[in-house]
Amino acid sequence: MLLGWLPWFFHGPIPEKFNVLYINGSLAVWAFYTARMWIGTLVGLAVWPRAWWVRGPLAGLFMMLPVGFISLATPGCGPPCCGWNLTTGAGVGLGVAALARVLTGRSGPLD
To answer: What is the domain partition of the chain in residue ranges?
Structure first.
């Protein structure tokens, strides 16, 4: 869950960016952080692919893709923001999977 907050230290999504579009910015920002926090759950529950170093980034990409569409729909953000959201999601997923591998010595839930 801590890794899900990592982007906040660098840039994070900014509620005001959504408020000017008459979208509840605070709620939109929570969507991004909630998706990032769910990455670890998906990494822990997924059994495919078996390689932890592939499963982690894929889980991050899958969890961040829906909120990435919010970035695509935001004027002034678009594809660069979506790309960074997917990149941070994949990085968080890789970090969670690596941490789980180091702590448990297992590649996944079936090992």
So the answer is: 3-104
